[in-house]
Input
Amino acid sequence: MTRIPKNHPRYKSLMTREKISLAMKKGLVHETGLIAHGRGEAFDYLIGEKTQPFAEMAEKIAAALLLYAKNPVISLNGNVVALSAKECISLSNAVPAKLEVNLFHRTNERVKKIIDNLKSIGAKEVYGFNANAYIPGLNHDRGLCEKDSIYSADTVLVPLEDGDRCQALRNMGKIVITIDLNPLSRTSKTANVTIVDNVIRAIPTIEKWIKVLKRNDKSELNSLIDTWDNEKMLKEVLCFISRRLQDL
Amino acid sequence: MTRIPKNHPRYKSLMTREKISLAMKKGLVHETGLIAHGRGEAFDYLIGEKTQPFAEMAEKIAAALLLYAKNPVISLNGNVVALSAKECISLSNAVPAKLEVNLFHRTNERVKKIIDNLKSIGAKEVYGFNANAYIPGLNHDRGLCEKDSIYSADTVLVPLEDGDRCQALRNMGKIVITIDLNPLSRTSKTANVTIVDNVIRAIPTIEKWIKVLKRNDKSELNSLIDTWDNEKMLKEVLCFISRRLQDL
Output
């Protein structure tokens, strides 16, 4: 990782790539996670690699939803942990929300490695290993979760999530917030709130809004949440990228 | 690889992902090749996952340039071999053009593995292992090539190439044809001809045009080549994607 010079025009992006690559070598990230990261890179480039107003607003709404929830849970996978483990722990303390590891390519070994990694940097409790419930409609491994965490959650933040899982969580009646750089993905279209932003920028921005909105009472949070139109925002993202491509 | 059902809406894309992933496990593809593949996937999605007219035209011009050349060479890296090894061998026979393995993250072991793989499926001669020349302006490993192949080539087809290498080859006075799904990349902007298409579709389409244009004499090829405006085509691609995003 020392071979990338700090003045390289793509330094940030290259370092992020190294992080994901290293996490794969450590067994935290599945190899298809690297391909998914590449797709994210392309879309991040198209939105200008910064938090655009449509994302900032979604992050504010996400904060309101997490504060409004009775049982909020943050779902973590290999890529999320590789890129923003500390930030997720900090957000879970700020809300407060539970943390649960949920993997698309699940192995107990990988779940354990991820949980150990999170605990080594300060997480107190992380759900996911003692999976004792199923999300209905998903096949065996992908549906596994913990009864006291995701299964009974009313609101879940599922960054970098698969479309099927996102839909299955919605079918359970949960409020689903996702972080997905691809405004066209099934996940983006299925979630109640889609944050079209890099997870690295999104998690700290949600936490920033948690601190601001913590003073508000439930009815104020509710009024804010009521203003959200996810479909309209996704159209705005496509218009934004479309205009940007013409100007580049 | 048997776990993906043929009727899955993303079957082709998932199978391609499996191919790249398997090639990494075999040591043919570097892990950052998986991230690069993901970026490609995103841009392929944006152009509709098919050969658009701007790509078809670039593939025709590429065929004309390869036929016009005195020493054409096709440069191969891990991703290209993982996705279209047979097609590249077939194209090299049709032109005819030399094949040379050139890696961004070069190790002799990986070069050898790729060459062995190509020979096992029918390639007769593959350059790249006995690298005895340097492309000026690139650091040690990335600049290595063979004197009798890329170093002395007048025209090179470098699919999925790095921006620096593309520029360095142009600085040597060579005609550079690239295949790159990202119309905004430095490689795309630097090459003489940029084929904005998936390498899987592009290589056979170039070969199709080789067969058509083989009957033409050099002056006819030259007239065709003269019509090409790479910058104009790249603008057309951006307009195409931009319009498509509005319609999606």
User: Anything to note?
Assistant: The interface with chain B takes residues 17, 20-21, 24-25, 31-32, 34-43, 45, 182, 184, 238-239, 241-243, 245-246, 248 of chain A (CB under 8 Å). Chain A has a mean pLDDT of 94. The two ends of chain A are 31 Å apart (CA to CA).
